[in-house]
Amino acid sequence: MRIGVSSLRRSVLTAALLVSGLAIVPAALAAQAADTSPPTRPTNPIPCPPPAPPPGPGSGPGPTLGYASICWTASTDDVGVTGYDIYRLEPGGFAKATSTTGTMGGFSGVYGRRYTMYVVARDAAGNTSPPSSLITVTASTGVVPTASPTPTPGDVSPPSQPAGFREPCLADFPGVSFCWQPSTDDVGVTAYDVYRETATGWLRAGTVTILGALVHFTESGLVTGNRYTYVVVARDAAGNLSTPSAPLGAPAREGLPRPTQSATPTAPAISCHATYSTTVWHNGLTATVTIRNTGTVPLDGWTVVIEYASSGIRLTQGWSATFTQSGSQIRATNTPWNRIIPPGGSIQIGYAASYTGTPPVPVRISVNGVPCTMG
After folding, report:
1. Which of 138, 154, 178 is the last residue of a domain?
2. Of 105, 138, 171, which residue constitutes the final position of a domain?
3. Residue 56 has pLDDT above 50, yes or no
4. Nearest CA-CA partner of 35 in 75, 77, 74
């Protein structure tokens, strides 16, 4: 069998191109696998209302369907951005709502309801950018929604935005601690969800359900000296969510030293000094009690008893200890992180209470059954 020269040349050229193409694929995959640099953070998120829908059925007054959308400044990447993911705040936390390849995106929602979201960028290697700042927008009329959300009957009013933050609130806590003024709601706030910014999103760091004149949050297990960013969202019984608070930057603090007590053959005598201060308003107060160890050995484990002259006081909330009440006595027992009070050291606890009559004043403060000097 004879093979023409031209046919042979074509076969050799085809084989060369095939080999060359096969070589490109592993090289591209290797380059993609080597890419570990995430895109830059999407910036400047703003409400970006979609165009108005055409006239027709359902476009009259009082629509129940809406569309919440935003646009932002594009991210950059050393190889190339391939897409963006938009995350929406829900009662259970942030969840991915939609993806897009452009710098505008959104999702269907209940007309007139406010939705909080953020956006992250992705590249071909799967690297994810830091999240954009949070933005809250109102679902408006626009393009026909892809889904048909049903408005929740009953309570649809969200709580007010958490505000009035203070940091730290517990100076002796090893980690982050802060507190804030309670939100208001037409029915009642049931909880606060606290979110911490991570490298790729917003993580729910905790939920606070103990409510009082001040709302407290603590988080341990962080890197001491590092600064962390948080937002707080109020929630009511119907699942309505407030607008997130303004971001709060807080460092993880070392807390007070916690020395290890050496063994002693007998329990040492307790010597202590107590300082009591209070802020009083109509039928309510917040009290701060500082206990200083005036003895010569560490105090390992403590129960503080604050005794009032009458039983007209009622404990509502406490912090930096486990609190109980019996009659006119308020009892506070140490937590694991402030169990030991070294010689010359001190701990600080606090609580909120209601009262009847004149503002009460303690007649005695004791530690482990031993009265402290007061002043």
Report:
1. 138
2. 138
3. no
4. 77
Computed over every residue of the chain, the mean pLDDT equals 85
Going along 111-236, which residue ranges are E strands?
114-123, 135-138, 163-166, 176-181, 189-197, 202-208, 215-219, 227-236
Kindly indicate the confidence band of residue 141, based on its pLDDT and cuts at 50, 70 and 90. confident
Give the pLDDT mean for 170-177.
Answer: 90
Nearest to 284 by CA among 319, 316, 326: 316
**pTM (two decimals):** 0.62
Q: Could you tell me if 125 and 196 lie in one domain? A: no
Q: Are 193 and 230 in contact (CB under 8 A)?
A: no
277 and 370, same domain (yes or no):
yes
For β-strands 272-281 and 373-374, DSSP reports them as parallel
CA 78 from centre of chain: 31
If pLDDT is split at 50, 70 and 90, which confidence band does 65 have?
Answer: confident
| DSSP assignment of 6-74 | HHHHHHHHHHHHHHHHHHHHHHHHHHHHH--PPPPPPEEEEE-PPPPPPSSTT-SSS-SEEEEEEEEEP
Whether the CB-CB separation of 337 and 258 falls below 8 Å is answered with yes
* Amino acid in the structure at residue 205: A
Sign (positive or negative) of CA dihedral 311, 315, 318, 323: positive
**Rounded to 5 degrees, what are φ and ψ at 6?**
-65, -40
Kindly list the distances between the CA atom of residue 356 and the CA atoms of 46, 310, 325, in Å, as whole numbers in the listed order. 51, 10, 16
Has residue 12 got a pLDDT over 80?
A: no
Q: Which domain does 229 fall in, by range?
A: 163-251
Q: 259-297: per-residue pLDDT in tens?
A: 565 555 555 688 999 999 998 988 889 999 999 999 999
Answer yes or no: is 303 within a domain.
Answer: yes
Inside any domain, residue 69: yes
